Amino acid sequence: MDEPVKTDRRAQRRAETERRLLDSAAALFVERGYAATTLADVASHADVAPRTLYLHFATKAELLLRCIGAAIAGDTEQIPLADRPAMAETMTAATFDERVRLMAELTASLMERTGPLLDVAFQAAPSDASIAAAAAAGRADTRRTLREFWHRAHHDGLLPPSIDLEWLTETATLLAHAETYLLIRKTTGWDTDTYRDWLSTTWHRLAAGGHP
What we know:
The protein is 77% helix and 0% strand. With 212 residues, the chain is mainly α.
């Protein structure tokens, strides 16, 4: 057998094993919580040897963060959300209504995939510095993405010229943070579609008002 073929098959097996580990870990983290989930539990659930798990993930924190990364992307490809075609389309759509609709859809879909795992991470953050740092980085990414979204809309003439852009940016961004989604999920019983529509409607109203 040619060496490239062997290499491709090894890479495929490794990717399949990692996918099983991530699926198992995500399910157990959400079901049991961070503290009650062990790496041995994950290996058993995924039907792999513990040694195999450690070849992929050295620590439980690394495993949780990788689960969140895969959930954010929607797959195991190492491509940041900001660099994906859907985000580019959202940032450059021709009309304000279309941009808001697409951003609300992206945000709602992201929260549906990641919300339960992010809840686990927020609970684990006080006891693990790497998870706390990742949570802070996630908030910064959200703020950076929404800031670009609103500033581009303003630059492209899609917002009223007199709008208080900084107030709009900061206020609208608060609505898109994971903590806001999790609070909504715990207190209102809204489904993903209702959350998406609320985001879209509220962003429109904020943009129309444009001042505190």
